[in-house]
Amino acid sequence: MQTEARVGMAAATMDSGAAAAAARRYSTQQQQPPQPQLHHHQPQLGTVPHLLAGGVAGAVSKTCTAPLARLTILFQVQGMHSDVATMQKTSIWREASRIVYEEGFRAFWKGNLVTIAHRLPYSSISFYTYERYKNLLQMIPGLDRNGGFGADVGVRLIGGGLSGITAASMTYPLDLVRTRLAAQTNTAYYRGISHALYAICRDEGVKGLYKGLGATLLGVGPSIAISFCVYETLRSHWQIERPYDSPVLISLACGSLSGIASSTITFPLDLVRRRMQLEGAAGRARVYQTGLFGTFGHIVRTESLRGLYRGILPEYCKVVPSVGIVFMTYETLKSILMELASDD
């Protein structure tokens, strides 16, 4: 009995000692809370650095994948006029060889200056507004951080869609000019960004700068929504399951998968957008007279459903590195800028 009592007293003493130690640890943690402080620094990246990270990420990504982007545009507009209908049975390799032979290797980056001029503000606005829309949406009851997985997905989808629509609306004329410059082959009607803007306003009026805007907004909203949502969902899950993997690898892989998902779903709208942007270009006759849905119907009637997916293969080849690079570059730059801000 005495032995048992001593054991019991020792156990009680150990319990009380453990309790005291736990209390001391808790007190120390309360006095020095490292985790909330890190979390507090996360949103403190200023507006200018945030815009800079998004813009540079978009410009780097587009420059790296410009050749595939031009091939995608050329495939998308085939069948629209007689001089591009000859591409119907061509392959990616054959068309790439034709560009090198007829226009030179630098032609793969035709229109890339206007691409960067468009992508810098577009990516800046889309990344920046996505974070802001997310913060606003999380203030709505049921969509806050305690709303669970469904609320997180809803916030990402809605925030991504709104950010895409905002960015596309503000930068659309540059996107149209980029498409027209990239779609030129042997005959160059537009001699650069300023000339293209002037010629479009002269030939088609100011409204000509917004041709295809409806199809763009209808496509870019779901595209950016899916891209951001898939990326953030995959990334958060990956970081939970494999917390020691390289952040660069995670961003690259999750970004590539999100690009495939968004492109597969929204590619027909992107194709219609490109065709509407080229409507009446260089003084050509109008092909589609009935707006967005009429253009869809015309393509299906004349080229079958497969016509809506012309250029999907080069699009996949482009989007896997492109979206992966943009998210990887954005996350890397954001981390660097936050470290610099914390050092200051």
TrEMBL record:
Solcar repeat segments run 45-136, 151-237, 246-336
Q: Which domain of life is it from?
A: Eukaryota
Record's GO cellular component terms: membrane
Segments carrying the region annotation (Disordered) are 20-42
The answer on whether this UniProt entry bears the keyword Transport reads: yes
Membrane topology, from the record: Multi-pass membrane protein
State the name under which the record lists this protein: Mitochondrial carrier protein
Keyword flag S-adenosyl-L-methionine: no
Give the record's keywords alphabetically.
Membrane, Repeat, Transmembrane, Transport
The processes (GO biological process) annotated in the record are:
organic anion transport; organophosphate ester transport; transmembrane transport
Q: Write out the annotated subcellular location.
A: Membrane
Q: To which protein family does this belong? A: Belongs to the mitochondrial carrier (TC 2.A.29) family.
According to the record, the signal peptide region is none
